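Continuing from the previous page of notes. For each protein in this section, the sequence appears first, followed by its structure tokens. Read the first protein now.
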Amino acid sequence: MDLVNKALHQVLPEKVPALSGADVVCEGFAGVDPKTGRYWGTLTPVVIGQGGDSASDGESFLYPLSAGACRNTPTEVLESTFPLVVDRCELIPDSGGPGRHRGGVGSRTVFRLTTPGIFYATIEKGKIPHWGIFGGKEGLRNYALVHSKKQGEFEVLKNPAVFLDAGDSVSVTAGGGGGYGDPLERDPEAVREDVIEGYVTPEKARRDYGVVMRPGTFEIDRKATSALRKGKARAKAALGLKGK
């Protein structure tokens, strides 16, 4: 579906969004509970950011359409049912692709085993970032990092089983959607709101959107922003990159 969208975006610009995290970022854990002697297992998909489109920003923390049958398992249910602790569940700043309409930001969840067990994953779209269109930039890719006392730290995309000890953890990153349109065309007030919400850092606001925030505040330096955007636009024009 994503390849068809990319092929059609030039002729259906009002219909086709930038790339989202797409297929499920799906991972699970299993083992034998030493307290009960019973086998346990769970699938715990992590949700992605959607791609921006012609009318709006991409949504954050949503499953893609292809995974519409999936539901997020609440942390309280997960921890009370299985020997797992969720150490962190958060949105990732700067993970959504910059654009006139920004890609939705991705999420990161850190799972920690309280008993020995195995970790397995089927994570798609982990090789390259999620593409933007019409000058929009890429969103963060999908991947998982295993933190093991014996094996060290290593990345996982697809694997049948990684054996882990109690206290080992897995950090699963579900990337953000791609951006739609030139980031320099985004309303500076929308960029300011993104910074306030924590979706975009002040550094990325300046670098990608040409919006300069006054140090230590959420105020826009209008004069510096205008000068920076004009300079970036001239540089793009000189390189023939307008709208790319």
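Done with the first. The second protein uses the same format. Note its length before scrolling.
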Amino acid sequence: MIKSLKNFLSRPIKRLGVFLFQRLQSWVEADLPRFATAPKNLEILLPRTITNPHRIYIGDDVWLGPGSLLVPAARFPSRPLFPAGMAADFKQVFDPKITIGNRVTSTGGLVLGAHQEITIEDDVMFASNVMISDAGHGYDTAHTPYKYQPMRGIAPIVVKRGCWIGQNVVILPGVTIGEYCIIGANSVVTKSIPARSIAHGAPARVAKRWDDAAQDWVNAT
């Protein structure tokens, strides 16, 4: 009797839970900003931070897990870095662009910080906590906090189609990662990686290359 009563009461609760989840999901999808493109089947899970969405071009069937930070920075300094009332003695203006291709996925914590251009081609897979930035903070003096120095070393970044970027990878300005590369976990990519390579380390170095004749990965020479 008690079990039957519990089952009877649990059904409307389950239905309510499903209804609320569906409404929340619809709200989250509807709350996405208007990007430069109109992607189909786009999901960027909460929490997320997106600025200047009109500078972000996204393809179809993209899924980005929680903690994504998509920031095409049009100027520096930005308000969060400088306390209220603190004026900078310089100003930098940029024309940034972020492009994310079709079917790109990220487990979570993807950071894309563009001052010039970051391009992610189709079918790229990101593990968690990947940071890609096409600029760095200046360090012309050791007597001023680096967050208050101008951005420098700005150069575009490209991750070509089909790549697998591992956990905690950092990709620095000016890097092109060739198609179908694998970048091992905890790597720092400071130089471009040729197509169909496996690279890892800090700085990342090519360890293996795909051999079409052998149809296998072979040690890099």
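What the second structure shows: The first strand starts at residue 43 and ends at 44. The CA atoms of residues 186 and 207 lie 15 Å apart. We return to this in next week's lecture.
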